[in-house]
Amino acid sequence: MLISLLALAIAAQAPPVMPPAPVLPSDAAEGDWRAIPDDELLVMTLATGKTVVIRLAARFAPEHVANVRTLARAGWWNGESVYRVQENWVAQWGDPSEKKAMAPGVKAVPAAEFEIAAFDAAQILSRPDSYSARSGITADGWPIAGDGKAAWLTHCYGMVGVARDALPSTGSGSELFTPIGQSARRLDRNYTVVGRIIEGMQYLSALPRSDATMGFYATPGERTGIASVRLASDIPAAERPKFQYRSTDNPRFAAYLRLREVAAPPTVPTGASVCDVPLAVRRVAG
Amino acid sequence: MLISLLALAIAAQAPPVMPPAPVLPSDAAEGDWRAIPDDELLVMTLATGKTVVIRLAARFAPEHVANVRTLARAGWWNGESVYRVQENWVAQWGDPSEKKAMAPGVKAVPAAEFEIAAFDAAQILSRPDSYSARSGITADGWPIAGDGKAAWLTHCYGMVGVARDALPSTGSGSELFTPIGQSARRLDRNYTVVGRIIEGMQYLSALPRSDATMGFYATPGERTGIASVRLASDIPAAERPKFQYRSTDNPRFAAYLRLREVAAPPTVPTGASVCDVPLAVRRVAG
């Protein structure tokens, strides 16, 4: 009996004999994966124990990202909350009183980084869209749009924007939001994008909606607490998350993008919007 | 003490003296609101007690809507569940076994209603989008797109589509889904749209996501039960919900649409997509 159980256990461990999956022209090559720097990863742990990981758009919104780093290093968000969840609009977090003193070194009025320097997409989508003459994906995996004069990161589902008061305010970066429904592209060029959620989006998108004005929870008890927000670079090496993004400046991503726009028959090809192109990331060992 | 409390209560009931809000050119006139027929309202009551109301696209997908009505009248969905919730994709409900016998009178293979007869938008958006040369809103408040040859309802957030097997299957209408994230327009012309959620969307969009394959819950305990799905026309008059939609074949909605596309300064006008035009409905007394 012992022997036969052992034999079964060994059989169960043996990998099934499967032919290797064919490599498609649209598949990433190993070298297409590139590391996201530790100080461009913001790790938000909710009071529920769930973790949301944000990739920071450091080269597109340097002043706001500098503020975000300063706030994270000061532990400024620890004990704060997700205080607004508006159906088909945004989840927003930070200090609901908007009265908490900023951490030392935070620039209260950073430059408005609503637009970015240039339209530098490595892969461009075939069609104009409702919001821009051109759109595409940067080499380092950001969705971008432009009109020939200006360029901007797009407020797709899961992007992270900086909440602000009425224009010309740009916000400091202490109050952040992410679109949780239809993309929020009417915020493009009017709000600063500081990042994108690359893991744990469902812990924000599935939070209960508030029916109160603008989706701000009516009572503190409805909020979801934030245990901590840290830069990965400030997390001890042994527990530090590591991520890579799929780069797009290669023919494999170009093939992937074309497949997304032009599906194989019998499916009718419909196109693809810049917010509907999956931008792959993966967790890797430290 | 009693008197002063009474005085306070009376004071609290007195309406504050406010000037009447000015009527804007983009505001609906009273006559712009039109009744949604009782047999075009599908009322899904979840086991949680929450209600989701769907407006049926009877004139665009007549065979599928006929099936939906037959299934509702047979109580076919009662006791079934929301069995799939995939992050940034869809919530889907019906019979997870896909083995339950259809109700008598249900057409097992209805006509594929992926496209509709004509592009009959009353108001057309200014720009082409990533998925269509033209898009707009029909007079009776449906988002629509076309390419000069065909036309179709668009898979925006909150639209209701018919789940199906691989093409050329069109599905019977027993398994329904709604996009809960970024719009799902790559399903346009490949899936049949049978309606739009007009109330209670948050009771589907905020359900916990499943990490299992394609978001199908791994265990029955994760599903959200469906207490009943009924046509409003089959609900006793005293408790029957009544809804009106805002019609769009009038200059007031045209002004509203232009405002949506071209925001007032200092906001930079960004445009609007067909999925980002709110299509107003309102509950009215019976």
Automatic annotation (TrEMBL), chains A, B:
<keyword id="KW-0697">Rotamase</keyword>
<dbReference type="InterPro" id="IPR029000">
    <property type="entry name" value="Cyclophilin-like_dom_sf"/>
</dbReference>
<feature type="domain" description="PPIase cyclophilin-type">
    <location>
        <begin position="52"/>
        <end position="231"/>
    </location>
</feature>
<dbReference type="Pfam" id="PF00160">
    <property type="entry name" value="Pro_isomerase"/>
</dbReference>
<dbReference type="GO" id="GO:0003755">
    <property type="term" value="F:peptidyl-prolyl cis-trans isomerase activity"/>
</dbReference>
<keyword id="KW-0413">Isomerase</keyword>
<dbReference type="InterPro" id="IPR044665">
    <property type="entry name" value="E_coli_cyclophilin_A-like"/>
</dbReference>
<protein>
    <recommendedName>
        <fullName>peptidylprolyl isomerase</fullName>
        <ecNumber>5.2.1.8</ecNumber>
    </recommendedName>
</protein>
<dbReference type="InterPro" id="IPR002130">
    <property type="entry name" value="Cyclophilin-type_PPIase_dom"/>
</dbReference>
